[in-house]
Specification:
3 domains, 4 strands, alpha+beta, 58% helix
């Protein structure tokens, strides 16, 4: 089996008990042989063959961007981890975080994600769920509970947007209703249709459209 990687041709040749791994730089043609057990050679082969999809690369890049922003903002937990393991390892961790982000993303309805910026809203929300105290083992949020949490958050956010839009003819904004956060959540839960809620509110308080 032959693999080409960054100008190096890697060939695997199996013997009875071992695998000979020949590394040949394309420019010089000089070869170096490694004699490994089949198990270790298979591990090396898997590492060399590792490929990432476009979406996985995008997610990892967005995660790395967010981690850099958190570092710039002196977020204590991220700064502590970065100081302990170094930027290289943290950048590598972006790959696994990005994969988990995609798992979470796939569990959310596209209609719910409309208006949610992937790079500076969804990805930061996922990164915010990381348990940095558990890094590097057990720090990633479980996909389903994380998706459930974001589903609730984004549903409420869309409801707020709907209320804001329905209040425009009355020259009002959400904050003008004087509702506490617990009241907002209750209304959103009891009356999911923002237009129906605003119509009820207008009738209750006898509001007139703005001139």
């Amino acid at each position: 089996m032959t693999i080409s990687l960054k100008g190096v041709v890697v060939r695997f040749s199996k013997l009875t008990k071992y695998t000979v791994v020949r590394l040949t730089p394309r420019m010089t043609g000089l070869a170096a042989d490694l004699i490994l057990s089949h198990e270790h050679a298979k591990d090396l082969e898997d590492r060399l063959r590792k490929e990432y999809s476009h979406l996985e690369m995008e997610a990892a890049l967005c995660v790395w961007e967010e981690l850099n922003q958190l570092t710039d903002r002196k977020q204590p937990e991220v700064c502590r981890v970065r100081e302990n393991i170094g930027s290289v390892e943290l950048r590598h961790a972006s790959i696994e975080i990005g994969k988990r982000a995609l798992e979470i993303y796939d569990q959310l309805d596209q209609d719910l994600l409309d208006g949610i910026a992937y790079d500076w809203e969804f990805i930061p929300d996922v990164v915010d769920m990381i348990d940095w105290e558990q890094f590097p083992n057990g720090h990633l949020p479980p996909a389903k509970p994380a998706a459930d949490s974001l589903r609730e958050r984004y549903t409420l956010k869309q409801w707020r947007w709907g209320v804001e839009a329905a209040l425009q003819p009355y020259a009002l904004k959400m904050e003008d209703l004087g509702l506490e956060e617990t009241e907002v959540r209750k209304h959103a839960r009891d009356t999911p249709d923002a237009k129906v809620f605003v119509a009820w509110w207008v009738e209750k308080y006898g509001l007139d459209r703005a001139a």
